[in-house]
Write a structure and sequence with these properties.
- The protein is mainly beta.
- It is built from no helices and 28 strands.
- It has a four-stranded antiparallel β-sheet, with no helix packed on it. It has a four-stranded antiparallel β-sheet with strand order 4-5-6-7, with no helix packed on it. Strands 8-9-10-11 form a four-stranded antiparallel β-sheet, with no helix packed on it.
């Protein structure tokens, strides 16, 4: 394993904070405070950890940054305009394209990448996706799911060989009214989809058919702490690298919930719920599975947790200040 690096996008101070994480002790060291030419919000590390892609929300742009081997420090590369404020970023496994949904502008942009991993002009814009919040490819790189929060739907697209999105024969699945689908994730075996619902603080488990792109409802679990009173506001969803545990953040209770994943049925069972940073919006898990980092949008701090690989339980290790209004957290090995 190389150096573990944590990236935190800080929207209001217009910076990306770069921390080195000691993979043995959990100690943090500041590597870089990179001032950005815009307000960084969503981020995505490329699978080979050579590039970091950042959505500049107010500037309607997506920018690439080169990741220095060994240190993880960032150098700015090209940026492109997109027809909507980026709220999420995701790419295909063979590094050809990025997808950028826009919550504010109800659309999705397809952004080709050149041979160096730099973004090119938008090749396709899909309209009429009300409050589009995430876009996620399955493990084969063939199917893209787009969650639309206000219409309680997951839209299903097929990615063609020439990187064009085509609606599936059954183009969407309607979820329970009022839940507000926010983020979707595929299981490592591609058999299941997990959907975090922002408005009622729940997670839906769906069976996924990789042959025809079909979804079938299996289960709903709550991530809200016992005794919570108020309106939920769920934020982030992450799977452990081994697929055994699912973690979700909730902003109004400032908690992280842990669920065990059944490796046969895909169903979830609640394991734990802990207090974390105030209004946790961004969270990620180190590739080793041993560390989880969560940032508080109001507290302007990042906490790193040691992960028990047997139980999935979290134990706070170190806390560090960030820039103002941290939005997204990405962890990579460089």
């Amino acid at each position: 394993m190389g150096q573990t690096v944590i990236y935190v996008s800080c929207q209001d101070s217009r910076e990306i904070d770069v921390f080195a994480l000691d993979g043995q002790s959990g100690e943090l060291a500041v590597r870089q405070h990179l001032i950005t030419d815009g307000a960084p919000s969503p981020m995505r590390v490329r699978p080979d950890a050579a590039r970091l892609y950042v959505g500049l929300r107010h500037e309607h742009a997506v920018q690439a940054f080169a990741i220095a081997p060994g240190s993880g420090e960032l150098s700015p590369l090209d940026r492109v305009r997109v027809p909507g404020a980026p709220v999420y970023l995701h790419g295909d496994p063979v590094l050809r394209v990025l997808f950028s949904p826009s919550y504010a502008d109800d659309n999705l942009s397809v952004i080709p990448l050149d041979a160096h991993g730099e973004p090119q002009n938008v090749s396709q814009r899909i309209q009429d996706l009300p409050r589009a919040h995430s876009a996620r490819l399955d493990q084969t790189g063939r199917w893209l799911l787009v969650s639309t929060l206000t219409t309680d739907a997951i839209h299903i697209f097929r990615l063609t060989d020439d990187l064009c999105l085509v609606p599936n024969d059954l183009p969407s699945m309607l979820m329970q009214p009022g839940r507000g689908p926010r983020h979707v994730l595929f299981s490592a075996d591609n058999h299941f989809v997990y959907c975090l619902n922002e408005l009622d603080g729940s997670i839906d488990v769906l069976a996924f058919d990789a042959q025809n792109g079909g979804l079938t409802f299996l289960q709903t679990v709550s991530l809200m702490p016992a005794g919570f009173v108020g309106k939920p506001w769920a934020a982030e969803l992450r799977l452990s690298p081994d697929g055994r545990f699912l973690y979700a953040t909730e902003r109004r209770s400032s908690t992280i919930s842990t669920f065990a994943v059944n490796d046969v049925s895909g169903l979830l069972s609640h394991r734990d719920c802990i207090l974390t940073e105030q209004q946790p919006r961004g969270m990620d898990i180190a590739p080793s599975g041993r560390w989880l980092a969560a940032a508080g949008e109001i507290s302007n701090h990042l906490t790193v947790y040691a992960v028990d690989l047997d139980s999935g339980r979290l134990t706070a290790s170190q806390r560090c200040a960030t820039g103002e209004r941290p939005i997204c957290v990405e962890i990579a090995e460089v």
